[in-house]
């Protein structure tokens, strides 16, 4: 299976979501790999180096790919390939999405964040990606419940699917990332639980995966 992380804007939380998901599915026993499709920046690759240095488990495979096509070909060898895309992926993003079982579009609560993502999602739909495969996820979220509700209403009006759990922006997650951890591996049970809920909600959207009890 293939999951793509796509965004128009940079820094919305694609790579954070990629590592969270990779760690949680690896814990569930899946063979998983993150395809780092921003080789110049190499965020996921650098995180993997820190993770190896800290000898954290489970081990997560990460590799840089210069082309989307190569990453897609490699996906056959894994239970799940996570395509961690660059910002402004445009054509590459289209190919990623067309080949994915699930497309995740991280966004913040602001109109400035949501609008370009909605436009990007419409473009993917126009390119033949089924709308029921595209899910928005509030990432790096900081805001009140009222702001969360308003943002959900806005996305709902634009006919976008939104994952129920939000991925909060927290200092402990930032610190965890610096140590090669995913958000579900920080030393605070409440933060862990929030992160795991996000990963679980994503896994539940994959075809053939049963809803968690
Ligand atoms: N939930 C979070 N809590 C705290 N910090 C976070 C969280 N998610 C992401 N970050 C931090 O925010 C920054 C941007 O996140 P990330 O690299 O995941 O975004 P991105 O969409 O992959 O960016 P790019 O478009 O540059 O690839 C990073 O410094 C990351 O460590
Ligand atoms: Mg990234």
Automatic annotation (TrEMBL):
Signal peptide: none annotated. Keywords: Plasmid. Residues 3-110 form the CobQ/CobB/MinD/ParA nucleotide binding domain. Gene3D superfamilies: P-loop containing nucleotide triphosphate hydrolases. It comes from the Bacteria. InterPro entries: CobQ/CobB/MinD/ParA_Nub-bd_dom, DNA_Partitioning_ATPase, P-loop_NTPase. It holds the Pfam family CbiA. This is CobQ/CobB/MinD/ParA nucleotide binding domain-containing protein.
């Amino acid at each position: 299976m293939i999951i793509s992380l796509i965004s128009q804007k940079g820094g919305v939380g694609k790579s954070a979501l990629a590592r969270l998901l990779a760690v949680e599915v690896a814990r569930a026993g899946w063979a998983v790999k993150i395809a780092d499709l921003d080789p110049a920046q190499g965020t996921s690759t650098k995180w993997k180096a820190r993770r190896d240095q800290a000898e954290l488990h489970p081990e997560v495979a990460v590799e840089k790919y210069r082309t989307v096509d190569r990453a897609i070909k490699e996906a056959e060898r894994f239970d799940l390939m996570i395509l961690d895309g660059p910002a402004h992926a445009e054509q590459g993003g289209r190919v990623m999405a067309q080949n994915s079982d699930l497309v995740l579009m991280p966004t913040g609560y602001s109109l400035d964040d949501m609008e370009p993502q909605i436009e990007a999602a419409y473009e993917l739909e126009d390119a033949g990606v089924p709308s029921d495969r595209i899910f928005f996820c509030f990432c790096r979220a900081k805001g009140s419940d009222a702001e969360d509700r308003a943002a959900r209403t806005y996305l709902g009006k634009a006919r976008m699917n939104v994952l129920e759990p939000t991925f909060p922006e927290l200092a402990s997650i930032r610190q965890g990332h610096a140590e090669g951890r995913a958000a579900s591996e920080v030393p605070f049970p409440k933060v862990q639980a929030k992160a795991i809920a996000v990963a679980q909600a994503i896994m539940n959207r994959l075809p053939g995966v049963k809803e968690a009890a």
